[in-house]
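FAQ

Q: What does a record look like?
A: Structure on top, sequence underneath. For example:
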């Protein structure tokens, strides 16, 4: 983010002596992106941020993937993956739905607090379908509620503490950074007037969050020779990573609530890019929110059929009533996967049924990827097996 933030105590000039009340030095850490050439923040630690006393293997959940071959549109029923959240946490109990070399999409229902965790591969965007959580981070605390996107930069140590009712979380893990689309921003990074949201809609840690402790275990997901090139380590730090007395910069976690997205509409049907909210390398994230629909007298409010020549489309239906999928079996908690090379669109009966509609009360989160997605174990477990034939009503 290009928007400068400051919390706690910092020295008047960077990379200069900053002393504790007892006369010792605080330890300055630069957390930055793209090799000192992009956004960064400076954090001031009471302890040495590199001091570890142990490192062991963290056996990750199953991250193996299966190609979507032969090419098949699919319906994944996420609410069948978990019976309850008790005994699960947001970090260790994610089940992989879909993935490729750029992004992985998983789902979790959790009620327990997570261990301390750091993703050293890429940024995470966690959408809260249901529930609330406190997210403690090295930058401070975020209070996440239903409908929030929680954006956590790569290498941010944090942990999840679900509220009394637990959480249902849709987790998007990138191999890159996740940020607002460049076309929404000025050349200096300010949101432009045509953007469907702006700086006022982002919530950041309000203050520092200091915890004392020694020999603190942090689970680290990092590059290696595991499935999709991912492995895990359990690193034990000599002092608590939440010992930051102050920080400043343009790199930090934040939340954005889907209800603050202002939809862009028109006389005729608008294409999916108007619904975009974030982007990463080789993928985009969009949201379809309640809105007025096309107002040309002969408009067709549901989408036209379109061929995904360059991308796979993943739609997560998380609220309201999605008009274009009526008659397909799609419902709340469903994912539709429309792979590249397959022309997809509304169910035939939905086209006539939507004529004359003035608004849609739907809520969906879409991920479009520019490399083919493969199915994870979670996706394979809840594939309904019949969605592909719902347009024709039959199978050979």
């Amino acid at each position: 983010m290009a928007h400068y933030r400051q919390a706690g105590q910092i020295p008047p000039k960077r990379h200069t002596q900053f002393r504790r009340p007892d006369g010792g030095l605080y330890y300055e850490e630069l957390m930055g992106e793209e090799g000192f050439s992009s956004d960064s923040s400076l954090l001031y630690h009471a302890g040495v941020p590199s001091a570890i006393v142990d490192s062991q293997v963290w056996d990750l959940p199953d991250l193996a993937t299966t190609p979507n071959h032969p090419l098949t549109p699919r319906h994944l029923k996420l609410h069948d993956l978990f019976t309850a959240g008790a005994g699960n946490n947001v970090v260790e109990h994610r089940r992989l739905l879909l993935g490729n070399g750029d992004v992985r999409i998983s789902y979790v229902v959790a009620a327990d607090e997570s261990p301390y965790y750091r993703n050293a591969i890429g940024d995470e965007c966690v959408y809260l379908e249901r529930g609330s959580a406190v997210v403690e981070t090295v930058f401070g605390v975020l209070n996440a509620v239903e409908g929030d996107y929680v954006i956590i930069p790569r290498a941010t140590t944090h942990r999840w503490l679900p509220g009394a009712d637990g959480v249902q979380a849709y987790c998007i893990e990138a191999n890159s950074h996740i940020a607002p689309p460049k076309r929404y921003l000025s050349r200096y990074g300010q949101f432009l007037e045509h953007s469907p949201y702006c700086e006022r809609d982002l919530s950041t840690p309000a203050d520092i969050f200091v915890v004392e402790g020694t020999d603190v275990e942090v689970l680290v997901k990092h590059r290696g020779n595991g499935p999709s090139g991912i492995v895990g380590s359990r690193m034990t730090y000599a002092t608590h990573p939440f010992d930051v007395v102050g920080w400043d910069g343009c790199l930090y976690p934040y939340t954005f609530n889907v209800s603050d997205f202002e939809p862009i509409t028109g006389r005729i049907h608008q294409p999916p890019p108007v619904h975009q909210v974030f982007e990463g390398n080789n993928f985009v994230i969009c949201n379809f929110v309640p809105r007025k629909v096309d107002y040309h007298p002969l408009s067709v409010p549901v989408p036209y059929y379109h061929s995904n020549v360059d991308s796979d489309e993943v739609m997560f239906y998380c609220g309201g009533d999605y008009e274009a999928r009526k008659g397909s079996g799609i419902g709340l908690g469903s994912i539709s996967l429309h792979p590249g090379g397959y022309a997809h669109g509304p169910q035939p009966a939905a086209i006539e049924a939507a004529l004359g509609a003035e608004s849609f009360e739907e809520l969906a989160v879409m991920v479009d990827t520019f490399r083919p997605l493969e199915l994870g174990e979670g996706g394979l477990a809840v594939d309904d097996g019949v969605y592909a034939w719902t347009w024709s009503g039959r199978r050979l």
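Q: Is there anything notable about this one?
A: The first strand starts at residue 5 and ends at 8.
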